[in-house]
Amino acid sequence: MIVVLAGGVGAARFLQGVTQVVPQEEIVVIANTGDDSQFYGLHISPDIDIVMYTLAGLVDEKQGWGVRNDTYHTMQRLSALGHENWFQLGDQDLATHIHRTQLLHQGETLSAITEGLRQRMGIGPRILPMSDDSVETHIQTPAGLIHFEEYFVKHRFNVEVQGVEFVGAKTARPAPGVIDAIKQAEAILIAPSNPIVSIGTILAVPGIHDALHEASGMVVAVSPLVGGAPIKGPADRLMRALHMEATAVGVTRCYRDFLDVMVIDQQDAHLAEQVEDLGIPCVVTDTIMRDQQAKTALARTVLEAAGLRY
User: Fold this and answer.
1) 175-to-61, 213, 229 alpha-carbon distances in Å
2) Count of CB atoms within 10 A of residue 20's CB?
3) What is the SS3 assignment for 203?
4) In the chain, which stretches have pLDDT less than 70?
5) What one-character-per-residue DSSP string does 127-183 give?
6) What digits encode the pLDDT tens for the residues 67-84?
7) Whole-model pTM over 0.90
8) Cβ atoms within 10 A of the Cβ of 80, count?
9) Handedness of CA 125, 26, 28, 200 (dihedral sign)
10) Cα 25 to Cα 23: distance, rounded to the nearest angstrom
11) What is the DSSP letter of 59?
12) Residues whose CB falls within 8 Å of the CB of residue 32, separated by 6 or more in sequence, listed in order
């Protein structure tokens, strides 16, 4: 079994490579749910949906989220009725959220709903939410706390960040299967996701960090920063706001106490020695996933770093 800790577009694209190397039934994805929120009365799980749509071949590759060739008639009507429209949801995408919300109201867990969606979409890898309990990532700003999606989408991460809070994390429990998957994994791969609000949120759920620390399989992470900047998203801004070094070295420090190998981009080769000075072996390769060939090559390199060959 190969476990992948995942959050957002970078993780979804990384998984497109992993699924070309590892038999899909041997992959377990532990997905960030800290981005989950309520919009228009619906429960939205952005990172779970990005992973599902990508692995099902439905994702809009150009924008990295949502369903390819979706329409937005519902959003246009909601806007005409005076609703905010900064969080755009396509009509087919809305069907997923309506389905999820209805089942949650009927008492089903997010895990069970995600498993049902996975089967209906014909997705091979198992997809586990990090928790069935509510955990929301909030950003502390001079005006107060705002949900991460508001910071990320509405404000396009152009507001001052004074801190990050994982609301509900302290009392949350890992979803069924999460800890067992980590314990049984031959390797745990940390996708090139935001170390603060994607992977950091997963680690904030009690029990997951300790399970990684005690895991028998090797833990290998891919830095989402290339040349000190992310391919997409605000990872560098958040790291600097939290007084962290916004480089592959800073990312390594986030995972240092349970990490076995760090994979960094060739543009950051000059940082390899600093990574290894932290006691973490470093692999330098091309981490920019321009096309399917690059995604597969990166996945193979990361698996080899974990001591596995397929």
Assistant:
1) 29, 18, 32
2) 16
3) helix
4) none
5) EEESBSS--EEEEEETTEEEEHHIIIIISTT-S---EEEEETGGG--BPTTHHHHHH
6) 999 999 999 999 999 999
7) yes
8) 9
9) negative
10) 6
11) B
12) 6, 7, 8, 47, 130, 193, 197, 198, 199, 201, 202
Backbone angles phi, psi at 291, to 5 degrees: -150, 180
Residues linked to residue 236 through DSSP beta bridges, in sequence order: none
DSSP three-state, residue 263: strand
DSSP string over 21-40: HS-GGGEEEEE--TT-EEET
Q: Residue 87: phi, psi to the nearest 5?
A: -105, 95
In this structure, what DSSP letter does residue 242 have?
T
CB 4 within 8 A of CB 14: yes
The answer for residues whose C-beta is within 8 angstroms of residue 176's C-beta and 6 or more apart is 109, 111, 128, 132
- The tens digit of pLDDT for each residue in 107-129 reads 999 999 999 999 999 999 999 99
Name the maximum alpha-carbon separation found in the chain. 58
Output the six-digit token pair for 199.
């992977």
Phi, psi of 94, rounded to the nearest 5 degrees: -60, -35
Paired strand residues for 263 = 222, 283
Q: Could you give the angle at the alpha carbon of 292 between the alpha carbons of 287 and 297, nearest 5°?
A: 45
Angle between helices 292-305 and 8-21 (to 10 degrees): 80
Find out whether 176 and 143 touch, Cβ atoms under 8 Å.
no
Amino acid 156 reads R
CB 213 within 8 A of CB 254: no
Q: Which of 306, 301, 274, 275 is nearest to 288 (CA)?
A: 301
CA atoms within 13 A on the CB side of 109: 13
